[in-house]
Amino acid sequence: MAGLHYKSLLAALVLVCSAYAHTHIRNLVVDGKTLDRGLYIRPYPEAFNFPVKGTDNPDLVCRSPNMNAASTKILDVKAGSTITLEFHEDTSPTSRGINEKHLGPCTVAMSDLSANGAGNVWFYIFKQGYDPATKKWCIDTINANRGKLDVTIPANIPDGEYLLRGEIIALHLASRPGGVEFYPNCVQIRVSGGSGTTKPKNLFAIPGVYQQTDKSMVFNVNAPYTSYPLPGPPVFGKSGSRCTRSKKKRAAAKREL
Ligand SMILES: [Cu+2]
Question: May I ask which residue range the UniProt record assigns to the signal sequence (predicted)?
Fold first, then answer.
């Protein structure tokens, strides 16, 4: 009897999950090889795909019930190489990245693994919001690529162990404060072969980087819009304040390219 009861409970859970159909990072693709979520991604229950709500929610870091670094293997990656985060709305590897009504941006950030995500340790390596030319959001790109999001590890960061956090931010309920949904997951990586010439700046905390009333967090995708203000500080290697830099510095920056 007890077994039966458990089974029907499970069936109910599965129904709820597919009805909501959110997302998680299920796999990684590195050098053409698919690496299952169990290895290098901070753990979450198999069928888990629910969002984090609230910009000050501690689960915003990695959406993992086990924040022990030893819970997860560390993936060796070359600085400057590209790894692919693969989002899926359920456990099927062929399921969508995310329900297409979950319009919104995505971000990828890194932090020194030893900090375990705490404090002002994070820096963005990728952000994509809304492109007015194509009228596509980042989640449209992810869905067009069957859940895959390519991320390039900066070539010039110091070698070492990092948490890499990929996130979809869904805005379909974000017309009022608190409606925004976060879908982060964290990968443990060991970067080698980098030039180590540039220490990441613009470090920020998670939670902390987003505030409930930010224009990027309260945004109505059901009303007309022509642009979307991406949240948080600039991406590593890109200046957010080009205009305020001196001519000399701009010339120097150009030479670095
Ligand atoms: Cu959802």
Answer: 1-21
H/E segment holding residue 76: strand 75-78
CA of 8 to the centre of ligand 1 (A): 24
DSSP label of 87: E
Assess if residue 131 is contained within a domain: yes
Write the pLDDT tens digit of every residue in 193-203. 999 999 999 99
Gap from CA of 106 to ligand 1 centroid (Å): 14
Across the chain, mean pLDDT equals 88
Burial class (CB in 10 A: 0-12, 13-18, 19+), 87: buried
Name the pTM for this structure. 0.86
Quick check: helix, strand or coil at residue 198? coil
Rounded to the nearest angstrom, the distance between the alpha carbon of 182 and the centre of ligand 1 is 9
Q: What is the dihedral of CA 116, 86, 55, 237, to 10 degrees?
A: 70
List the domain range (segments joined by +) for residue 71. 23-229
Contacts of 139 (CB under 8 A, 6+ apart): 97, 98, 100, 102, 103, 104, 105, 106, 168, 170
Two tokens at 103? 């319009």
Residue pair 48/183 in contact (Cβ under 8 Å)? The answer is no
Domains identified in the chain, total number? 1
CATH value at residue 58: 2.70.50.70
How far, in Å, from the CA of 98 to the mean position of ligand 1? 8
